[in-house]
Every structure is written in structure tokens, then in C-alpha cells.
């Protein structure tokens, strides 16, 4: 699968790269994609929700009325959830929402996501670049050249690049990650995936196993 390599001015460099068919042109597995996205979102949940139950409420422990003869239901404590100010019955408790997912399923999901984007013509290959200093306007100029100003974009670098990362950090619609941080959710959440040349080898070696 041949794709033209662009420079940061959005112009064709005259070179092409061959994207692996095993990574960018497979039959997408929707269930694997669903599971990987579900795990990613589950891992974002803090799980710190908590409400007070009757044992944690401050209040009198006196039996509020006699057991029989009132014609109403029995009541032993003002802290019961049936009374105003009482504890909540079956309320939320802290819990861990994360769950395990097989590595092969995660790999299949990421290949499926990249194949979906490739099929939609939503993958751009960009030659490696760097900035002398971190400046948002430099990164904005790259977005403008690639017609991505008003589009959600995901830039995938071959390795850590502090100047490029810091230049993009203030821009809501763009995210910069390394190839090792690539996830199914981030691929599908972006309108356009921009792969730097230096990232291709890492992506294909990680996902071709």
C-alpha cells in the first residue's frame, strides 16, 4: 500500500512509503475494537464514588417508636435509609473498573483501527521534523499546511520530542504521542492520523507480531 510522504508545508516530497498490508489493510474486527475501546475508557474511571450508608451516618441509635401497636412499619433507627437524613441504601462504593484484555486482541484492535482509517483515506505520512524551540504557532502552521486546523488530529512520532509535544499542548483538537503510546481509542477518536516516517517502523514491528 503506497502512500506519498509530505513535508511540514503540506507539499509532496516525491517519495513514497509502503505501508504493511498486515497492519493497514486487514479486515477490521469490530468486536476486538469494541473491547479495546471499552478497556481504555474503563481505565480512565477513577472509581472513587462513595455515599454514606446507615453505619456511617451521625445520629441517635435510640429506637424511635415502639415495635408494635402503631399500625405502621417497624423502625429501629433514625439513620435508616427510609428516613430523611438517613444513610443511602445500596449506594455506590469505591471500585476498580479496569479489566484484563489479551495482548493479541489489543494488537488486532489497533490494526483494525488503522485499517479503518486507511480505508477512509484518513492517514497522512509526514517526514520527520523538529522545532528549535517549543512554540504553539509553529505547530499551528503545520496544521494549516496540512488543512487540519478545524479537524481532530493525532500526530504519531517515532520517539519522544519535547519541542513538538510542548508546541501542540495548548491546541485542543490535536494530540502528539509516540508510537509506543498508540491506542485504538486515540486512533478512532482522531479525524486524521498523521504518521511521521520515524514512527512507521515501530508501529509495524509492534503490530506485526
Automatic annotation (TrEMBL):
Alphabetical UniProt keywords: Ribonucleoprotein, Ribosomal protein, RNA-binding, rRNA-binding
Gene3D superfamilies listed in its UniProt record: 3.40.1370.10
Keyword RNA-binding: yes
One Pfam family this sequence matches: Ribosomal_L4
GO biological process: translation
GO cellular component: ribonucleoprotein complex; ribosome
Region (Disordered): 45-77
One MF term in the entry's GO annotations: structural constituent of ribosome
Family: Belongs to the universal ribosomal protein uL4 family.
Protein's job: Forms part of the polypeptide exit tunnel. One of the primary rRNA binding proteins, this protein initially binds near the 5'-end of the 23S rRNA. It is important during the early stages of 50S assembly. It makes multiple contacts with different domains of the 23S rRNA in the assembled 50S subunit and ribosome.
Assembly description: Part of the 50S ribosomal subunit.
Name the UniProt record assigns to this protein: Large ribosomal subunit protein uL4
Amino acid at each position: 500500500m503506497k502512500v506519498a510522504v509530505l513535508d511540514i508545508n503540506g507539499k509532496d516530497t516525491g517519495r513514497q512509503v509502503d505501508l504493511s498490508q498486515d497492519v493497514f489493510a486487514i479486515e477490521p474486527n469490530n468486536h476486538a475494537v469494541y473491547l479495546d475501546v471499552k478497556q481504555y475508557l474503563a481505565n480512565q474511571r477513577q472509581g472513587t464514588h462513595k455515599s454514606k450508608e446507615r453505619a456511617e451516618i451521625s445520629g441517635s441509635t435510640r429506637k424511635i417508636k415502639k415495635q408494635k401497636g402503631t399500625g405502621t412499619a417497624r423502625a429501629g433507627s433514625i439513620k435508616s435509609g427510609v428516613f430523611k437524613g438517613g444513610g443511602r441504601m445500596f449506594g455506590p462504593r469505591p471500585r476498580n473498573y479496569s479489566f484484563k484484555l489479551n495482548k493479541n486482541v489489543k494488537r488486532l484492535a489497533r490494526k483494525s483501527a488503522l485499517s479503518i482509517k486507511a480505508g477512509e483515506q484518513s492517514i497522512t505520512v509526514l517526514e520527520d521534523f523538529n522545532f528549535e524551540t517549543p512554540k504553539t504557532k509553529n505547530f499551528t502552521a503545520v496544521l494549516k499546511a496540512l488543512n487540519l486546523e478545524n479537524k481532530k488530529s493525532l500526530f504519531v512520532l517515532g520517539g519522544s520530542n519535547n519541542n513538538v509535544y510542548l508546541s501542540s499542548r495548548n491546541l485542543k483538537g490535536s494530540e502528539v504521542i509516540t508510537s509506543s503510546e498508540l491506542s485504538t481509542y486515540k486512533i478512532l477518536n482522531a479525524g486524521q492520523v498523521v504518521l511521521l516516517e520515524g514512527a512507521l517502523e515501530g508501529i509495524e514491528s509492534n503490530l506485526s507480531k
